[in-house]
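dumping this here before i forget
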Amino acid sequence: MFANPAASWYHSNRYSASSACEHCGGVVRHEPWCVTVDPAVQYAYEVVRDAEKLSLVDRLTLHALGVVWANAPLLETSQSS
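structure:
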């Protein structure tokens, strides 16, 4: 047994930095805003990957704000001009 109880706790801790969530860094639990638990953030990720997944209300709102999107990645579009 270890003489120092804190050392005993540390060595029996099964959590590590390598087991942290890649999105929020949570080891024991996810942050409330993490894509793995927040439906609004999940929707935002989906929309960024595929503009066809925008809801009609979001399409109209973004159109009214002057937002333009295309199927091609932005980097390819900006390099060709």
